[in-house]
Amino acid sequence: MELTKENISQEILLKAFNHMMLAKAMADIYEENRNTTKYVHSTSRGHEAIQLATAYQLTKDDWVSPYYRDESLLLGIGFEPYRLMLQLLAKADDPFSGGRSYYSHPSSREEDKPKIIHQSSATGMQTIPTTGVAQGIKYIQEFNLQQFENNPVVICSLGDNSVTEGEVSEAFQFAALHQLPIIFLIQDNEWGISVTKEEARTADAYDFVAGFTGLNRMRVDGTDFVESFEAMKNAVDFVRNERKPLVVCAKTVLIGHHTSGVRREFYRDEADLEKHRAKDPGNILRKRLLESGIDEDLLKQIEKKARLEAEQSFQKAIEAEDPKPETVEDFVFAPTPITEEVGKRVPENAGEKIVMVDAAIHAIQELMWKHPEALLYGQDVGERIGGVFRETVTLGQKFGNKRVFNTAIQEAYIIGSTVGMSAVGLKPIVEVQFADYIYPGINQLVTEISKSSYLSGGKFPVSNIIRVPTGAYGGGGPYHSGSVESILANIKGIKIAYPSNAADFKGLLKAAYYDPNPVVMLEHKGLYWSKVPGTDEAKTLEPDEDYILPFGKANIILDADPTEIEKGRTLVIVTYGMGVYWAKEAAKSFDGRVEIIDLRTLIPLDEKLVFERVKLHGKCVVLTEEPIQNSFAEAFAHRISKNCFRNLDLPVETVGALNLPAVPINLALEKEMLPNAEKLKVKIAEMFTL
């Protein structure tokens, strides 16, 4: 795009010089006090000009995602050195993370500043959540859900080497396809830790993005503040007015270390350092100010004052309190208002029973009619087929393609974009087509979503619903039959539901909607339509619209005979999903001697009920569809054993699939691998004879 020249006031130039001297003084002080600044950190030395030029364009309606070298950007939008140093030293009053995260890893909802979602250290991964912010803002403006003083602009800052990450391309693609109001600010200092540009890439970002039709681009010398200010003024004005995406490729230099832990002398020679120092943004701006008639004594005074301010701030930050150890578990989840079962599970005029897939469709439909901030997207969920299992059929027709729409095959984007959508006040319901294909999205789930509430001190819990069809359903084969709950259950900071029937599905999905935290709904494909033999009871009468079933409440779905319990002749099966139906079938062979608990949610887990019932029966089987070794079921069996040890007659047993890397497609092989009622009966009979 073409640049227009702007007149830059002397006031702005001096403001920039002051911020550059502050950034330099801070970097120098950190280096001089290496024993005190013991946590790994980066500084913005060499990048100050483009960062400040960007910061000065932003309003309180805008959003920005700085990366870990962007302290000058933070200074430019109004964060004082003292507040930044609180994070540097991991102090309790660190405004971003409360002492939980690295320096220059911000998150902010401060009213007078641009907003900043949680920022991680995973380079390039911020592009998808930040593009999600822009996606959300476009949606809000299209449906007139909120008024802004200025059209919001979203800025995603990243280093040049992170552009080679595949997830960055997913963000570029989505931003270009949907014409989102976002600027990707790429700061190119030609280094990726010790990796040179020649080792890492065939082209710089400007040339790389040329293939993304609809993605505008510009180059700028990011070491020259005047040129950078003019470029970023044009860039922000363009996106604010035209509502189109733009890539700004800013050439910068790296004067400091990569980080305090990976020091420049480890991998850079003196010639390279001298080349970069020659383009120090502070020196370039100083020269320009002197040429314009600014007195050199004034500049020296600014530099001296900046050093003094940085020293005083640093000393004050050192003296600030550390976090209290007892706060270490704060902010993993935001408090949920859904704590009790409410509404009518079995209405008076319920009519015929419905299948699970209809419970999901009806629940989402009711929510979307009621809440304009709700939207649904994923692969093939749109109007044409409504999901490969018809699990969203009719929704596209009813709500239009701006609220229910297809995406490309981009699991990382589908999942990670919910971070930004949630941050701006929307409730994204997204779908991964098969559990076997969730793995490309695990990075976003672990790195961004699960940590967002905890590392932002509760400012940015991610409120989303991620629907994942899971499990085997007869001949689906190795890439359409997998179970993934153990992998997901090992991710701290997300919730997991696993309903086994239509009524639970509807109630849990409603609870997930009103929960401010990230929720994965594991939906067994074999239960969607009750076509798998023995699963007819997954059909239920449909609960009312107001029915909500809270997470963490397991359900006893089959009681043992009290007389048999009294004789010590019973056991309890703890299971979920398809396991419920294997357990029900197996229990028929042991009249009155088996109790079945349906967990319904895996995180949170109703350990209280399980421990109570295991202590009563003295014998327990944990049943899962997953390969048993190192599984969620095996881990839970250990916790049951530990908590119920004195009341157990036998070790807690686990039943699950064979320890194979995939579900084979041949039906006979699949049957041999997976658990079923017959295999469970053998285990139960064995336990009753011991």
Automatic annotation (TrEMBL):
GO terms for biological process: branched-chain amino acid catabolic process; response to nutrient. Its EC number is 1.2.4.4. InterPro entries: DH_E1, THDP-binding, Transketo_C/PFOR_II, Transketolase-like_Pyr-bd, Transketolase_C. Pfam families: E1_dh, Transket_pyr, Transketolase_C. Residues 354-530 form the Transketolase-like pyrimidine-binding domain. The keyword Oxidoreductase applies. This is 3-methyl-2-oxobutanoate dehydrogenase (2-methylpropanoyl-transferring).
